[in-house]
Design goal:
Helix content is 43%, strand content 6%. It is mainly α. It has two domains: 39 residues; 118 residues, no CATH class. It has a three-stranded antiparallel sheet.
Length: 208
């Protein structure tokens, strides 16, 4: 009788210990999962990145809002070249600003999916403002974009400068046909010289 009681007690104790262990295992897994949710993701955007963070949020933090742009445009009557700005001209400038910003962000986000490491500046149309700051073919790295989102075009109202992904690595970067394929930033800590966003260039051709 005593032996039977001891065996039953041992079995019950074993069941209790197994249940207790399973309970702790689930709690640890749950705690680890919750901890992962609380911990911020460390984004590394260089060539050998594992995770690449979209610059959307960071860019929005350093660029004027649509309301600020419209307010500024409502206060001026002509562009930097003296061309008059009408209601439709102002709307066209806001529309271009938003479209160019989205195009640049899409180029970077698409590049991240393809591990693009370099991007270069180009001008589909001449830009009288940016031409004094950026040479066609100047390039930046994905790491520089991550650290300095304000190097993403557009840079001013009416800007035609675009950012294009370079389909290749460092060894092929200088073998392109673009003239001026040189680094835009002179060093890792260099601060770029860029035009103020209020430099306004009308999209309406001047009448001769």
């Amino acid at each position: 009788m005593t032996t039977t009681i001891i065996v039953i007690a041992a079995v019950l104790l074993l069941i209790f210990l197994v249940t207790l262990k399973l309970g702790f295992g689930k709690k640890e897994a749950r705690d680890a999962s919750e901890a992962d949710e609380r911990l911020p993701i460390i984004h590394m955007s260089g060539i050998y990145s594992i995770v690449r963070k979209s610059p959307r949020e960071d860019l929005a933090g350093v660029r004027p809002s649509e309301a600020q742009i419209r307010s500024y445009l409502d206060g001026i009557t002509e562009d930097i070249e003296g061309r008059p700005l009408k209601y439709d001209d102002r709307n066209a400038l806001v529309k271009l600003w938003k479209a160019q910003t989205e195009a640049s962000l899409q180029e970077i986000e698409d590049g991240d999916r393809n591990s693009v490491a370099f991007y270069y500046y180009d001008y589909p149309e001449p830009c009288p403002v940016c031409a004094e700051f950026i040479t066609r073919g100047n390039f930046v790295t994905r790491e520089e974009i991550y650290k300095k989102p304000y190097i993403i075009p557009p840079f001013h109202l009416g800007c035609t400068c675009v950012l294009t992904a370079h389909k290749g690595g460092d060894s092929t970067l200088r073998d392109t046909v673009l003239v001026g394929m040189t680094p835009f930033l002179e060093g890792s800590g260099a601060e770029p010289s860029l035009p103020d966003w209020t430099n306004t260039v009308s999209l309406t051709e001047a009448k001769g």
